Amino acid sequence: MLQDRVLVKLSPEEGERRSSGGIVIPATAQVARRLAWGDVLGVGNSVRNVKTGDRVLFNPDDQHEVEIQGEGHLVMRERDIHAVATERSEHGTGLYL
């Protein structure tokens, strides 16, 4: 990856979800502008806040899709990432957002 670009593999969809009230939402239901989680596979040399192996939150509709060895991946700028969730043992334990 070059400059501030990040290569992300989308996390597989969980299928149907359950709302906090107990209502089952099927996987085929349309949800307006839903953000997605993905795993970072590569970063450019100008990327400062994300590293390979991090889990990131982003809007998949605004990104460029590429196919690598038959699997779909997304290429985006670092600034398009909304949040990073990763376990970093040097800062303690747990999941950080």
From TrEMBL:
Q: Which keywords label this protein? A: Chaperone
Gene Ontology MF terms in the entry:
ATP binding; protein folding chaperone
InterPro entries membership: Chaperonin_GroES, Chaperonin_GroES_sf, GroES-like_sf
Would you tell me the protein name for this molecule? Chaperonin
Q: Domain of life of the organism in this record? A: Bacteria
User: Which family does the similarity line name?
Assistant: Belongs to the GroES chaperonin family.
